[in-house]
Amino acid sequence: MKMKTSAFWLALPLLLVSFGAFAQSTPIDLEIGYRWTEVDGNEDLYKTQINEDDGILIRAFSLSSNDLGAFDHFRIDASDLGSGPAGSLRLQAGKSDLYRFTLGYRERDVYSALPFFANPLLGQGVVPGQHTYDRNRRMIDADLEFLPGRKVTPFIGYSRNTYDGPGMTTYSLGLDEFRLRQNLDETEDELRAGVGFNLGRVYGMVTQGWRSVESTEDLTLAAGGNAGNNPGPILGQPVSAADITRSSETEVDTPFTNMFVTGALTNRIRLIGNYSRFSAETEGSELEEGTGSFVSFAISRFFTGIEETVTSNAENKTWRGGVRAEIALTDIFGLDAGFRTESRELDGSALIDTLFQNTITFSGVDPRDVREILEAESAMDREEDVIHAALTARAVGPFTFRVGFQQAKQDVTVMPDLSEIVVPGNQSGEFERSIDTLDASATFAKSGFLLGASFRTDDADDPILRTDFLGRDRLRLRAAYRTPGNMFRFGVTAEQLNQDNDREGANFDGEQDSLTAEFEIAPISMLRLRGSYSQLDAESTVTILRPEILQPMTSFHEEEGESIEAGISLAFKRFTLDADMIQFENDGSIPFTLDRNRVRLYADVATHFGVIGEWANDDYDESSPFGEYSADRYGVYLRLK
Amino acid sequence: MRPYAIGGLTLLLTLGFMPGRAAASPQEAQQTPPAAAAEQAPAAEQAAVAQCSDCHETVKTFLANPHARGEVKDGQVPNAVCESCHGDATAHMEAGGDPSLVKVPRGLEGSDSTCRTCHDVSTDRRSHQFGVHANSEAVNCLSCHSVHHAQPRSAHLLRLAEPALCANCHGTQAASFRNKPYAHRIGRGGMECSSCHEPHGRPGKENLRLTKAGEVPCLGCHAEVRGPHVFPHGAIAAGECTSCHEPHGSSTPKQLKRATVYQLCLECHSPMGDSTLGSQPPAFHNLNNPRYMNCTTCHVAVHGSNRSPALLK
Fold first, then answer.
1. If 0-12 CB within 10 Å is exposed, 13-18 middle and 19+ buried, where does residue B288 land?
2. How far is the C-alpha of B272 from the C-alpha of A483, rounded, in Å?
3. What is the DSSP string of A159-200?
């Protein structure tokens, strides 16, 4: 909240100064005001899904000009800065042939507190679940390019991404789970520099970057969390925690390189080559302390305290490269073909020093501390080679065609880790998969009519994950019509996706059908009506192993969604009205209804001044307990232009 | 950088050009592009030349149009800006504005012969001629961009705000953002379709806009799950975020692909049939017990851990 307030109050004078300076000669538009929120029902669920809050808001701001002294182009666009939950500002400024500067700022309020997620106590009426957070994400991107449009254009850039705030999580210790308060603070900085070049027939770009991430996470036992989730004793021993603290620090350094070069051999043939790599290295340390009454099957003992230190290192070395040719066979027909390869090597090691304090065997003898030192290692390699070719016909009369083929070969190797705590099994080994893809599309476009069909089929020889398809077909059909001047527009899109892995034991079968039809009509210039209908039917079945009885069962997921939308835009004299409504009903695995209404009325009071009123309403109703809310937001904004 | 630093930086930039508005420096004049230099005839001579803006009110919109960058002087848009797309308009003017005597780029031919003369870059992931939105009868530059009637608050001279523009053809995806309870906030906070997709990108996965380091776009924002971890979740390391998450709108919390977490996990972690990655025997957790219905209650480090192979912390 502090962040939102400071961002708003510091952006405001900027915008007003800008307005005052240029309102006379420069296109400028500012909407600023206040929003009120009323929520009935589960406010946590509302904040998780929508999270619009009370407060001052710069609803929108824009300023642009090509004649502002030191800049021959200058533009600011901002929206929803202030009470959030998602605001942004983008600035572009520069002088042609000399420099170009862009600055982007984005802020998000990220909230999650669901009643039925990670909540073993839902049946007892305890909400929300045990995994919640209330965090802010702020992202900045600044880029400065010198000599744009010249043969050589150096550039530098900087980005920062911060993510911080409190949360709640659980921790599994001593055969129980305890609620912990969590505080996360993560900052990522990225610096990059490079050069673009354009020598006519040959152009390209090289970028070298450095990214560093620093992350700290502190956890403490939450008030009231001492008893854990398990109400009963284990082997006659009650399990509880008196205190748990854990803190971890992580640093990641990632140098990266990107480059591409494009060369025109002739007016009809281009060759494009690219190479990129990054090497990310993590260094982590953790310290954990806990006291209470715990049980460990790993050491077959009861214990009353734990101290654990962890130092860890992990690497991700990834590179990819490729070359392809774009060949304009004629003005109409073209061929695009190439090869690309990608390699990813993941390695990690951790030294885990655990001291179990005041232990005693399950039979109540041999009291002592037990120290366990574990050196764990992991390694995973993934390689992928792809060849592809496509033939296109851009304009055969009113028709457009494309036929393409691609073959991807994937190879994943996972090294076994002898120290693994999990039950030994199939988690290591080499997994290979080859996927052949054929796609074809045809489009007819003439006199405002558009008819399009595209089909894609994938054929794989083996799965790597159980839910990987062996066969997948996707069909998309679209028909549309628009009159000149957009007085009337109509479109309908139908999509079907089928995928399966019919190997015994998996029996994965997924099907998804969707249909969307929309229209827009402006019977008179001041009135525009719109509406749409959407339908989604999805079903998925996979055989899974029920863990407690080791018997197969079917995992079934279903969605049957249907939505109707309608909207109106009316401009009458000094008034403009925009209103939209959505009704969505889903009868699938999570049945719910969602109604959304939006109204925005603008009154043009004077040449440079107007007033805006906004109302937004969301009604969400889910069949599960505590899964409903009704939220109204009212906003009043002044518009200066 | 704190938010106020952003405001401060922007403020400095804004204030920076205020004193310089009166006149362009000699140095700036030297850097004027050739097209504009042709317009810098003596004032009297220039006054005698008919201006496009004399008849076409729309020329005023070019005071802020990217195509007039570096060309606007003293609030005037020189004819050269218009002629860069519409060609020499002398005959058009002499004929009293005969529309047949000036080039008006439209459709595929207009895009090919006008837009692509400057905007035709092919990179490893972009291609104006062979991308998913390659210039064709069905889709061309002018289907999405409007040089004269762009949506004022959209970048890149888009005809409409980006979500509405893409929805014109990709209605199913657009509807999932509007209608589903769990979705990325498209159109707000700088999140657009093009945050993840490259509109001029090539088909398939080449259509995704990678981070500067070359990772999938999800990691551009969700840096906290990027790792690398000592024990990465195999589905991420070998697959993609979309193994578990719906990238657009979703009916399920966390935009997961299944309504209950144990379903999602056990669909991979079931040792049946082929040997597949991650299909090790599960522990004997009783799914009838609410404690075990949501695997992530214990396996909290589901994206990867530096401590626990079982992703417990």
1. exposed
2. 56
3. EEEEEEEEEEEEEEETTEEEEEEEEEEEEEEEEEEEEEEE-S
> Nearest CA of chain A to the CA of B80: how many Å?
15
The mean pLDDT values, 10 residues at a time, for chain A of 641 residues are 54 60 68 96 96 95 86 92 93 93 96 92 91 96 95 97 97 93 97 96 97 97 93 91 96 97 95 97 97 94 97 96 96 95 95 96 95 90 96 93 96 74 61 96 94 97 93 97 91 96 92 96 95 96 91 94 97 96 95 97 94 98 90 97 88
Report the distance separating Cα A119 and Cα B293, nearest Å: 9
Nearest CA in chain A to B23: A69
Q: Give the Cα separation of B310 and B300 in Å (integer).
A: 10
8 Å CB contact between A42 and A639:
no
Chain A nearest-CA distance from B5, in A, is 9
Residue A281 in contact with residue A304, Cβ under 8 Å? no
Q: Which amino acid is at B150?
A: A
Residue B172 corresponds to which tokens in the numbers above? 């199913």
Residues in CB range of B273: below 8 A, 6 or more apart: A466, A503, A504, A505, A506, A543
Cα separation, A286 vs A219, in Å, equals: 11
A552 close to B287: Cβ distance less than 8 angstroms: no
Instruction: Tell me the two tokens of residue A235.
Output: 């082997």
Report the C-alpha gap between B45 and B47 in whole angstroms.
Answer: 5
Half-sphere exposure of B212 (CA within 13 A, CB side): 26
Of the candidates A527, A597, A588, the one whose C-alpha atom is nearest the C-alpha of residue A564 is A597
Q: Which of B118, B123, B202, B231 to mutate to test the interface with A (most CBs of A within 10 A)?
A: B231
Q: Which of B99, B68, B64 is nearest to B81 (CA)?
A: B68
The answer to whether the predicted template modeling score (pTM) of the entire model surpasses 0.80 is yes
Which residue type is seen at B69? Answer: R
Sort A124 into a burial class: Cβ within 10 Å, 0-12 / 13-18 / 19+.
exposed
CB spacing of B243 vs A548 below 8 angstroms? no
DSSP, res B42: -
ipTM: 0.93
A255 vs A260: CA distance, rounded Å: 17
